[in-house]
């Protein structure tokens, strides 16, 4: 179910309070070949798939802005920063007390620090949240093989493969000191962390299936389905 398509009366008539799944993405550069909304598109699709598996989950409208300051210097990148994102999540989840819990499906790694901070505070307030993000190889973390493959499966018309080129393929942990001090541009001139030239739509479908299975399992552990 999509929250935006429901009415207040629909929710009031439910037998029990549903869970709310919120897709959180970003609007940021993804190399010269992927759209700025890549992270958001992935998060939306994962929430759609999750909601399709359980009648007690409602998918909220997406949040297309996040903490993307590390991508500054590349055209089109927009960022609300750590503090604003943390506050946004805090107030949004606080407003969702009529739901049984909130699942934050995050498509951008840069959002994790403020998400975790918000989650810790919300837990002290007695509010149940799950923060979940897809994972991948340490040498393929941004606009590389995995993300490009997924987008070739989800929205092939939005992928400009003739512009795809390798970026840096060093593991993220080796890049972090320079990345934190100088942003992505300091470690990759084209903004890519990985190699998108090997991307394949079929592989993208398999990656999405793995991520979906992992998300479903995490939700089942945190919020067991009512019998």
UniProtKB/TrEMBL annotation:
Assigned keywords, A-Z: Hydrolase, Metal-binding, Zinc
InterPro entries in the record: Creatininase-like_sf, Creatininase/forma_Hydrolase, MftE
Major enzyme class: hydrolase
Cofactor(s) listed: Zn(2+)
EC number: 3.5.-.-
Gene Ontology terms describing biological process: riboflavin biosynthetic process
Gene Ontology MF terms: hydrolase activity, acting on carbon-nitrogen (but not peptide) bonds, in linear amides; metal ion binding
UniProt superkingdom: Bacteria
Family: Belongs to the creatininase superfamily.
PANTHER family listed in its UniProt record: 2-AMINO-5-FORMYLAMINO-6-RIBOSYLAMINOPYRIMIDIN-4(3H)-ONE 5'-MONOPHOSPHATE DEFORMYLASE, 3-DEHYDRO-SCYLLO-INOSOSE HYDROLASE
The protein's name in its UniProt record: Putative mycofactocin system creatinine amidohydrolase family protein MftE
Organism: Nocardia cerradoensis
Gene name for this UniProt entry: mftE
